[in-house]
């Protein structure tokens, strides 16, 4: 729920309004760190709410103020404290993004109501020479689970590549948990592959069990890796993929075991219309696979 009380003290009225869409680049002057985003904001008086969408997910609910021509936005996602500060000039923002006390990066944005990010369905794909997505990892009871198991036969399978430490993964897991009703269990199966930075297998499984219990996840979450959540390591565990850009990444597999789509990242509830659009497209695509 978004806060109704202003998060920052203010003394002056705004002279700028940022409601709308903003074409954004973080670390624009550093090739290795550069990434694009779409700012989505709503301003009423001094108060601002919204988020930044990226190609790999969103920064969840941001809340803040505009005072004269200065923007301040913040959030705590359960693991990270984020702060965005920017100066607004006409239809341009220039600012800094702070993550905790140890990381900051420059960003710039320009108002662009027609701006869209690249399709999240085209960023990750099966490499040439591979026809299937395969895995075999232990569940929380120590049982090895793979796609050849009976539980997945003749079903549409949704494979989520995730980590229990990942806020966007938490939002996506909540959605999958609600979507995975008993009425759908005859034709649909979910399974998650967890890449955990916990230093031991025991601690990694403890994190998985906490997540399962907290939001009552009904499907298996398998431990794919512990000791590191490095995406290059995750890709090595799934060599059939060209790369893993983001946690989460979701693989859609039809009843014949064929990969039909791979979706990178997750647009959570904070993205408003984008989340509504995602939910509708997800349901339509799953239903399409189900009737084949």
Strand sequence of the main sheet, in spatial order? 1-2-3-5-6-7-8-9
CATH architecture of the largest domain: 3-Layer(aba) Sandwich
Into which percent range does the helicity of residues fall?
10-25%
| SS strand fraction | 35-45%
What is the number of strand segments? 16
Describe the largest sheet: 8 strands, antiparallel, barrel
- Helix run count: 4
SS-based structural class?
alpha+beta
CATH topology of the largest domain: Glutaredoxin
Order of helices and strands: EEEEEEEEEEEEHEHEHEEH
How far is the first residue's CA from the last residue's CA? 39 Å
Quaternary status: single chain
Mean pLDDT: 94
CATH superfamily of the largest domain: Glutaredoxin
C-alpha Rg, in Å? 20 Å
- Contiguous runs where pLDDT drops below 50 for at least 5 residues: none
Short description:
This protein has helices at 167-179, 201-215, 231-237, 273-291, and strands at residues 20-26, 35-44, 47-54, 57-58, 62-67, 70-76, 81-89, 92-99, 103-111, 136-138, 144-146, 156-162, 188-195, 221-225, 249-253, 259-264. The chain has 292 residues and is α+β, with helices and mostly antiparallel strands.
Q: Tags for this entry?
A:
18% helix; 4 helices; eight-stranded antiparallel barrel; 292 residues; Lipocalin; elongated; 16 strands; Glutaredoxin; alpha+beta; five-stranded mixed β-sheet
Question: What does this molecule look like?
Answer:
- The chain is α+β, with helices and mostly antiparallel strands.
- It folds into two domains: 20-111, Quinohemoprotein amine dehydrogenase alpha subunit, domain 2 (Lipocalin); 136-291, 3-Layer(aba) Sandwich (Glutaredoxin), CATH 3.40.30.10.
- Helix content is 18%, strand content 35%.
- It contains four helices and 16 strands.
- An eight-stranded antiparallel beta barrel has the order 1-2-3-5-6-7-8-9. Strands 14-13-12-15-16 form a five-stranded mixed sheet. The chain has a two-stranded antiparallel ribbon with strand order 10-11.
- The longest helix has 19 residues, at 273-291.
- It starts with 19 loop residues before the first strand and ends with a helix.
- The mean pLDDT is 94.
